[in-house]
Amino acid sequence: MYTKKMAFLCLLLVFSLYVMAQDITYSAPDREDVRNMNYEILGKLKGNFLIYKNYRNIHTISVYGDDMKLVTKNKIEGLPDKLFNADFIAYPDYCYMFYQYQKKNIVYCMAQKIDAMGKQIGNPLELDTTVLAFNASNKIYSSAYSENKQRITFFKINTKSDKQYIVTTLLFNADLSLLHRSTINIAMPEKNDYLTAFEVDNHGNLAFLRAWGTSQNDNIIGMDFYFKPAMENTVVATPLNVKGLFLDDLHIKFDNENQHCLVTGFFAKLRRGSVEGLYNYIWDETKLAPLHAGILTFNDDLRNDARGESSMRNAFNNYYIHNIIMRKDGGYLLTAESAYSTSRGNAYNRWDYMYGSPFFNPYDYYYGYGYGYGIGMMGSYFYPWSFGGPMNSVNRFYADNIMILSFNPGDSLEWSNVIHKSQYDDNSDAFIGYGLLNSGDQLHFLFNTVERRQSLLTDQSITPDGQIIRNPLFKNLDRGYQFMPRQGKQTGLRQMIIPCQYRGYITFAKVVL
Which of 265, 456, 470, 475 would give a disulfide with 250, using CB separation of 3.0 to 4.6 Å? Predict the structure, then answer.
């Protein structure tokens, strides 16, 4: 009896400490931070939180202390009036701002180093240039960086010939010293070929896919896996056997611990048919050969748990992959969320969006890679309406259940579970979806729920064995603050900065679990 009482008291103490640890600290509203500005949370540098903000042609770095009070705000000087993009990589002591612009017939790819107080270090560094015979309408350089941020690759794809793409890659280290430059030719024999899913490992090796379908926004019916060693000018091309499968939502993820590379995506058995399960392919970097290929067909129990308002047959038709988390033992976790939109009662499925080649543009010879990924209010790449499509007629956005799958090192399913939620918003997708925080012992899913007509930030977590924990409500949930959790960024083991909207202004909240 004594042992049971002690165990209960210990459990109660741990629970009490966890509840006490939950806290939210808000930044003060700034009249210049209007709700339609662009922004990006850069991270925690030397104890300060840095946030990039852009409105019209003014670019600034705001520095907040641990109490979320503004320490300083610095304008980024020397930028051209029109930028194609602004991307960032943050390190413990500094960060880089990467941007592109066109002057006359030359597109410049630039980098600006910024310190932990938001001040520019030195002059902008020119990474590369491209001569064009036209005015570009979008960025032409795309980037990917490794998990440890020690290797950064910029690449551009010349699509002048629809039979052969020319891919130019530039590999840099964390000091932005050029390690290798290469130009490779990729044959594009099929009518609707396109390149997708570019990823870089910790050694600078590059992987991507050549996929094709029957039309621009149709299923993928064939694909090749390409692996480019970091310091070589050649690629290893491997055809993937997907005969009889119709694929969609393809992703690549490197397992740096075990030197493997995962290719995964949803599959159907019929063209534009209902999603049946996941296609999984694992490549061994040391052997330069495939290690495993197979499919996981979703069973009825998982379908019933994940379907929400959909039928059993169509349970996964609105799901999109969000996160792939590699484990040290070679296993991995995958999360996917149900997301769709409607207009005047008509629901759009995944085939109503322009989900085709990210390089398809009949007027530009270069076209930047990416499915509409943006910062701030622009939305995230994995939501279907950001791919293009019937946006002008969309008036309601939905983000529903979250599916979590855990795979063992042999690529077989260990367990599955579903976090149930139902979210929608009219004319904006900023407040739906979820933010993910990895605390090591659990994965925390932060999202808004509505109770008594009030939007509340909710934390549900999942343990390593697949058990869902519904954690207590946060303290300091002040009325008037609307959280945008999917645009948040983890800045500590149990800490995240989440943007909020307050009386028409953008503010930021430090959330501690």
Answer: 265
Q: At 486, is the secondary structure helix, strand, or coil?
A: helix
Closest-CA residue to 400 (of 384, 378, 415):
384
Phi, psi (degrees; rounded to nearest 5) at 229 = -60, 145
CB 168 within 8 A of CB 185: no
CB 402 within 8 A of CB 459: no
pLDDT (0 to 100) of residue 354: 52
User: Which residue(s) pair with 496 in the sheet?
Assistant: 490, 511
The residue type of 154 is: F
pTM for the complete prediction? 0.91
Each residue of 4-56: pLDDT tens digit? Answer: 444 443 444 444 444 445 899 999 999 999 999 999 999 999 999 999 999 99
User: What 3-state DSSP class applies to 158?
Assistant: strand
DSSP reduced 3-state for 416: strand
Distance CA 323, CA 335 (A): 5
Contact 179, 171 (CB under 8 A): yes
Model confidence over 308-328: pLDDT tens digits? 989 999 999 999 999 999 999
Which of these, 173, 269, 180, lies nearest to 219 by C-alpha position?
Answer: 269
Reading the block at residue 506, the tokens are 């953008």
- Per-residue pLDDT of 154-207, as tens digits, reads 999 998 898 999 999 999 999 999 999 999 999 999 888 999 999 999 999 999
Total Cβ atoms within 10 A of residue 216: 12
Task: List phi, psi (to 5°) of 17.
Answer: -65, -35
Give every CB contact of residue 9 below 8 A, 6+ residues apart in sequence: none
Is residue 19 within 8 Å of 66, Cβ to Cβ?
A: no
HSE toward the beta carbon, residue 29, CA cutoff 13 A: 13
Rg for the chain, CA atoms, rounded: 23
For residue 340, which amino acid is it? Y
